[in-house]
Structures are given as structure tokens and as C-alpha cells.
Amino acid sequence: MDSHEDLIDYRVPAVFLAVALAARLLARAGLWTNPLRTRLWTDPLLRAVVGLLVLAVAVCVFVTPEMIVRVNAVTGVPNLAAPWVYTLLALFSFSCLLLIIAWQRGMEKARRALWWTTAAYAAVTVALWVLFAAADTPVERVRDFDTYYATTPYARELIVLYLLAHAAAGTVTSCLIWGWLASRKYEVRGWLLSGLLLLGTGYVANLVFDGLKLAAVVARWTGHDLDRLSTEAAPVSGALSAILVGLGFLLPHVGEDLQGRWAARTACRRLEPLYRLLDGAGALTGFSATRRASAYLALADRDTSIRDGILRLEPYLDQGLWDRAHEEALRRGAAAGEAAGIAGAVTITAALGTRTALPGRDTDSSPVDLLGDIHAISAALDHPLTATVHRNAARTGSTDA
Description:
Blueprint: H1 3-28, H2 39-42, H3 44-62, H4 65-75, H5 81-105, H6 111-134, H7 145-148, H8 155-183, H9 190-221, H10 227-270, H11 272-280, H12 295-312, H13 319-331, H14 336-357, H15 374-380, H16 384-400
Helix pairs in contact: 1-3, 1-10, 3-5, 3-10, 5-6, 5-8, 6-8, 8-9, 9-10, 10-12, 11-12, 11-15, 13-14, 13-16, 14-15, 14-16
Protein name: DUF6545 domain-containing protein
Transmembrane segments: 12-33, 45-64, 84-102, 114-135, 159-181, 188-209, 229-251
Domain DUF6545: 261-361
């Protein structure tokens, strides 16, 4: 396989994972998520996701032929890039396993399993470097270290150890994921389900990578040449696995953030008619979020402004008008929540008119409680029934008077 093909195999997932990492870091910095959610900087699971993505990017970068040659040249040790890449792979596998255990069981319940896993992979990392130091690998092999040194003492054990450690973590992680999905198939939904399905598929590709590499090494032991499995087929499977695993860990967090941001924007737009009505009548004062404010800040600002505006209208709100409008809306076929919104819209519109005609009015009557219906009231301002209900309720009130 030539250098150009190698770059296609590894740079694509490297770029993808770098973009995913940048998105996660921006989200953690609060640039497009809820600035009030302090868990972005305190949640250990989110920090673990970022750490995992850093390792995934590092693996995809350092496994390219150019970086392998550069690491060997900088250190002056032929093939030093091999244990370095193997260590990154082991740490990546270890991070994936830790994150799944913590994700599934919670940090407190998984503490003992996390400790044993950390100890095991720390031992593996030390053993990788000890075996490399003991092995005689003077000829630099950029693309086929695994198969070229498959029969060399200590290098052979080094290669088998990293493959088994990588495969063991992948197997356990895959079993945890698919077992989780099977045991909670009616409970896992939404972004978490999508992430777990991607992770499960990614770890299948990960096991294919290990199987292809190990098959090529075993073939060398038996005097056969299946090097193409290691140098051509395995990298494709490894690149696919990196993309799927990275996306699987990222999707639940980013998906929830984007969904929450979209919901906040939608709620903000739905409150716009009521906000415009109160603002146009001079009933709103105070801070107004800019267009560049986050969705959560814009919604909080609009919600607070509307509630404050309604509270300033309390002396002008007519409970009798609300009752008549509510009854009229129900009589005309409106649902309960819709009727309350229409009645609130009628009451607020009338109060704004009264406020203009009788500024400074004061009353001891019980105020109409409209704060719980602001979304329904905003929607009712554009409802075709509202104008009719307003006319009839006002006419009925005049007749009663």
C-alpha cells in the first residue's frame, strides 16, 4: 500500500475526530450551550469523553507513515514509534472501557472495576516498553512492523501483547454495550440509543482490525505471507472503528445539547407575539438579550421580561373579563388549555388599553394569575377565535354592567 493510500486511511478519521473534539471543547466552554450548566466543567464523564477523543486523534495522527518516520528520526531509535503507537492504542482501548463502565454503572458504583482496569492497563503499558527495550529491531519498518518482526524474540511478545490487550478491551466493551442494549431495550431511547448502536458497530469493526492483524502475524509464524491483511485491510477497519466509536461517544452529549438549544429557540419564537405586544405598549423594561446570546439566555430573558410585564399590569387585569372570555372560548369549541390562553390574551389586551386610558390606576381586587399560561397566551394572540371571543366577552360585560 502506498503512502497516499495510508494517508486516506488515517487522515479521514483524524480530521473527523479533531472536528468532534473541537465541538466538544466549544460546548464545554459554554459557547453554544446553556451557560448556566456548570456541569460542563465539573462532570467527570464529559471530561472522559474529551480525553478519549484526544487519544483517538493522537492514534490516527501518529499511525500515519510520515509521523512514524518523524518519531523515529527525532528520537534516533529505529521503530520507537511502534511501542508509542501501541501504547496509544492500549490507552484508547482502556479509556473506552472505563467510559462505558462509568456510563453504564455510574462513577461511584464502578469505582472498583475502574481501579482494576486502570491497574491492568498500567501493567500492559509498562510491559510494552520493557519488551521493546529487550527486542532487537534495528531495521526501520514503517508499514509492516507487526509482520516483519512477528518471529523476533520479545518483539513477537510485544506485538501479541498489544493485540490481545486491544482485543480484550474491545471484546469486554462490546459485550457491555450489546448486553446493556439487550437488557434495557425498552428503556434506552433517543440520543443514548443512537450512540450505543454506533459504539456497538464500531467495536465490531475494532475486533475485525485485531483479527486481521493477528491472522497476518500467525501466518508469519507458520511460514505463510498474509501481510496484506495487516497493511491494507486492517487499517480500513481501524479507521472505520475510530470514526464510529468517536461519534458514538460524542453523539449523546452533543445531540442533547443541540436538542435543548433547538427547544429553547422554539420556545423563544413562540413567546415572540406576547413579547411584541407588551413591548409595543411600553410594558417591558430591563435587559434584553442580543441576537448573539445563547438560546438559553435569550429564552430566560424573554420569559422573565414577559412575566415582569404581566406583573406590572396586575392593577388593570379584569378577572370577570377572563372568566367570560374563558367560558366563551370553551363554548366555541376550544380545548381547556387553548381556552385559558385565549382568555389570557383577551385579558392582557384589554389591560393594556385600560392602562393607556387610566394610568396609575390602583385596585385591591385579587389579580388574575396568568403567569402559568404565557406560552398558551402568546399562541392565542394569533388564534382566529381570539378577536371574536374578545368582542363577545366585552359586550357581555357591558350588558351585565
